[in-house]
Write a structure and sequence with these properties.
Layout lengths: L1 H28 L5 H6 L5 H11 L5 H13 L13 H36 L4 H15 L2 H15 L15 H35 L2 H8 L4 H12 L1 H17 L2 H6 L5 H10 L3 H28 L2 H4 L3
Length: 316
């Protein structure tokens, strides 16, 4: 049964990616503006525009362009930028590395911190620490990330002059310089993503703690710390892993506002630039990377929750 569930999740993931590819292609195709007009300028004649549209393949039917684009995407050919003429792969390489670098540092900090704080709050329910954690996480979830980023800029950059207000990277930064440049966006994202993970960890542990076998262990005198770490945590790992996967997907695909505020040269900023120039192949490639990352992480979370379920590992 476990194998069937895992295979079913993988199949659903592939179907989801196919549907997402269709939505991405249709969504970018209806964007206002004309890429040929953007390339040639407002003084271009209808004849030159028609020739350029034919060269770019924009005069073909939509389904032909979709299947051609999908086939190239599956084979790893992301195409050429319509606005600049450069290879999309070369444009994405450096930007994707920057995004993954920042996402990796945020995950390295936020996941252990969030799980540890959520566990500690669950070990002391109803105490001042638990209430403080609950209040802080609710407050953080209610505040949008652009407000947090702006507040950090005002305090740490404008008032205290501790950190730079932008995260511009030239590529020649040393370790300390790199950390200093990334400190502001990393701090913003850690604050944003940690709140959800802390709340889910705490809620998942407390939900399992009401189970009959946990109550039996408490009646037997087993220490609460041992019950949580050795019994409750394994059974609550499913929802915890799911919320971690959702936040990791956000780090890759949902950091548009953060990258824009701090002028960080990441993949989300590249996609915004592509939308402004109506560079459809670039926008489509970035969107598929975002959506593919999201689907893959959710798939990993689903499989992990299935494998972590003792009732599926040891069926009667």
């Amino acid at each position: 049964m476990m194998t069937q569930m895992v295979l079913r999740r993988i199949g659903i993931g592939f179907v989801t990616l196919l549907v997402v590819s269709l939505i991405v292609f249709m969504g970018t195709s209806i964007l206002p503006g004309d890429v040929a007009q953007i390339i040639l300028g407002q003084s271009a004649t209808e004849e030159t525009l028609a020739v350029l549209r034919a060269e770019l393949g924009l005069d073909q039917p939509g389904y032909v362009r979709y299947f051609s684009w999908l086939g190239n995407m599956v084979s790893g050919d992301l195409g050429t930028s319509k606005a600049g003429g450069a290879s999309i792969s070369s444009l994405i390489d450096s930007r994707l590395g920057n995004t993954m670098k920042m996402a990796g540092l945020v995950a390295l900090i936020s996941i252990p911190f969030s799980v540890s704080l959520g566990l500690y709050a669950a070990m002391h329910p109803g105490t001042w620490l638990d209430r403080s954690v609950t209040f802080m996480t609710l407050s953080t979830i209610s505040v949008p990330e652009f407000f947090i980023a702006t507040l950090l800029v005002l305090i740490l950059a404008v008032e205290l002059h501790w950190l730079p207000s932008t995260a511009y990277l030239s590529g020649n930064e040393s370790g300390v310089q790199l950390l200093k440049a990334l400190a502001m966006p990393i701090l913003t994202l850690v604050i944003v993503v940690s709140a959800q993970m802390i709340r889910m960890t705490r809620a998942g542990i407390l939900n399992v703690m009401s189970s009959p076998y946990i109550e039996m262990a408490i009646l037997k005198g087993v220490p609460r710390r041992r019950i949580i770490l050795r019994h409750a945590l394994l059974n609550a790992i499913g929802p915890i892993v799911n919320v971690i996967a959702l936040n990791l997907a956000y780090l890759v695909s949902g950091v548009v506002i953060v990258e824009t505020i701090f002028a960080y040269p990441g993949l989300a900023k590249l996609m915004i630039d592509g939308v402004q120039t109506r560079d459809l192949p670039l926008v489509q490639a970035c969107a598929m990377i975002f959506c593919g990352t999201y689907v893959i992480l959710i798939l990993i979370a689903d499989v992990a929750s299935i494998l972590a379920n003792p009732r599926l590992r040891h069926p009667k």
